[in-house]
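Fold this sequence, please.
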Amino acid sequence: MAQESRSEPSQQQQQQALEELQEPMYKPLMERYILDELKAVRQDQQKLREDVTKQVTHTQLDTADRALTYTTDTINNVFFIITITASILVLVGWNSLRDVKNKVEDIVNSRVSAITMEYEERLNILEEKLRVRSEEILSNQQKISVTNEVHSLWMRANLESDIANKIEIFDEILKRKPEDVEAIAYKADALLELNQTAKAIALCNQALDIDSDYGYAYWQRACAYALTHKHADALADIKMSLEYSPNLRNELLHESAFASLHDNNSFNAIVAGDKN
């Protein structure tokens, strides 16, 4: 009985032991709950990591598969183009790249030659136009120079009182303008002043060969004929001169070479016709 009493605490001892407790008895239950929650979190993280790894792996595999497919398609297309090109080259007779090169060189050379010939023709045409234009400019310059010189000589002739010097001036004019009928006629007039009627008539004929409508040449020849008493020829030329140069009518009675015609009825008829 004594041993049983020692082994089993009394109610008072149990009460005392409960009062001496400093911490609650349910603390191990809280720790267990926290451990279980931590374990669940670690499991969720592990599952999330596995899911992410699977997604990344699938994405990488899809990318690699697409890249491989693109590369394969590209290679197939390249070989397809090469095959078609080779087939075309075989069909047109170009069996090698050397043939292609030679053909291209021939085409380029022929094209360059055609372009060169075209531009040479254009250049020749341009050179011809420039040559013609240059000749025209030079010719015009020469004409202007001759015109200025002739104008100067005419001014000298109008101021010159000596008949011989005046004839020399007319010769200078005719050197520059051999077909100047006015200079020829005025030279004939000067020769008549020196009584060289034959030379004067020859010059008048020369002027009329150049211009058959030049009235003053007929007038000068009429003067020469009148001085040599060829009245019929003189009257015929007077009529021709008045036909082409009506203003000469005012000089009929003032021309000294026609003095021998003043008693001629035909001449007076011409003068009378002028008065009417």
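Confidence is low (pLDDT under 50) at residues 1-7. Residues 190 and 260 are 20 Å apart (CA to CA).
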